[in-house]
Design brief:
Blueprint (H helix, E strand, L loop, with lengths): L29 H21 L3 H25 L34 H17 L4 H8 L14 H15 L7 H16 L3 H18 L3 H17 L3 H19 L4 H16 L3 H18 L5 H16 L5 H22 L4 H21 L4
Length: 374
């Protein structure tokens, strides 16, 4: 985790909390530091210092652990394959095996997490050295989360492993540097991808505190608030989710306009929060206007367009007042979006799996209403 708690008593810490002089481990006060020293820190302090000090040492350790989990999870799919970057089965330095966690299929997309991380690091370094503009820098930064072959996001354990890889790469940068703050965002998203929501919230709140302290743009603050809202939802804190997503939705509309991709995506998130509280009329009212925009601006196969249509269909079939026509429309929409998601994102993508589940539910609701077996 981001080390913002006392190593001795786990109490939350201010950003300027006392640290071990040698390894920079953080404490509430000298009492906790002395207690921790006696309880074992004395034996590992030098080791932590040699590993780059507390934050770097911890990031490297967590990275190794999550890569092992990702490799094991992908083992069945990666048998007999080699990394498309280094062309080896085992990484020459880390000895890690390969993974695949994107929309690639067949013999494409197999890689070592270390190779993917090195590729993203090199691209970003070249952008910095050549003073490329923000657009070019952002495109290169996207390699931390988007496959260069299929151009779809990594997901699940591979995304989490890349989150830790990104954080360990940039953790030693000054707090004010954009790459370090973006790496913190990426780590929080990676933890969320594997359901580690409590730790994700911990990272996100640390990042928000940092940004508030040093000052940042309204857009970046909205990005962080949106990430926190997603984590609130996953933790079941639905009232806080709804309020935060509403503020983010209207914030993006104000600074980006309602047709911008980011505005459309956060509107979809707001609709999801309304749906979670069974406010289906408001969901449908919001998305009736946004779906045509998404189709025109983003295209029919964009993941944002697909998930908006999914949300609308779910609101239709779950509404207790749904007519037979509503249920038929919901089932048809989910059949179309699930088929498109399968083609574009692949069978194992979380969005595809989510649509499959809701398609079954919609068909069951329709069959019950029609009086026929599902």
């Amino acid at each position: 985790m981001i080390l913002t708690n006392c190593a001795a008593c786990a109490a939350p810490l201010d950003h300027d909390a006392p640290r071990c002089v040698r390894c920079k481990t953080r404490y509430c006060n000298s009492t906790c530091q002395h207690d921790h020293w006696r309880r074992g820190h004395k034996q590992i302090c030098k080791k932590i210092h040699r590993g780059g000090n507390a934050e770097q040492y911890h990031a490297d350790k967590e990275y190794k652990a999550v890569v092992a989990v990702a490799v094991e999870a992908c083992a069945e799919d990666t048998k007999g394959q080699t990394c498309y970057i280094c062309t080896e089965a085992l990484h020459w330095k880390t000895k890690e095996s390969i993974v695949r966690g994107c929309a690639c299929r067949g013999t494409a997309g197999f890689a070592h997490v270390s190779c993917l991380a090195e590729q993203a690091t090199i691209l970003r370094k070249e952008a910095e050295e050549n003073n490329l503009d923000d657009k070019a820098c952002n495109e290169r930064w996207a390699r931390w989360e988007v496959c260069s072959l299929c151009e779809q996001n990594y997901h699940d354990v591979v995304f989490c492993a890349l989150g830790w890889a990104c954080w360990k790469t940039y953790v030693d940068r000054p707090e004010t540097k954009g790459v370090r703050r973006s790496a913190m965002t990426h780590l929080g998203n990676g933890l969320s991808a594997v359901g580690n929501y409590a730790d994700a919230l911990f990272v996100q709140e640390a990042e928000l505190s940092l940004e508030q302290r040093i000052g940042t743009s309204e857009e970046f603050m909205l990005i962080m608030q949106n990430n926190i809202a997603n984590t609130y939802q996953n933790l079941g804190r639905l009232d806080k989710t709804l309020l935060t997503r509403r503020d983010v939705c209207f914030g993006y509309m104000r600074i980006k306009g309602e047709k911008h991709r980011a505005s459309l995506m956060v509107a979809n998130n707001y609709a999801a929060s309304l749906k979670d509280q069974n406010r289906f009329d408001e969901v449908k009212s919001l998305l009736r206007k946004r779906i045509p925009m998404a189709r025109r601006v983003l295209g029919e196969t964009d993941i944002a367009t697909l998930t908006m249509r999914w949300q609308y269909a779910e609101a239709e079939y779950r509404d207790v007042r749904a007519t037979l026509g509503d249920l038929r429309e919901a089932a048809t929409t989910l059949e179309e979006t699930e088929r498109t998601a399968r083609r574009v994102l692949g069978n194992s993508h979380p969005t595809t799996r989510g649509m499959e589940c809701h398609l079954q539910n919609a068909r069951a609701a329709l069959s019950t209403r029609e009086g026929t077996p599902p």
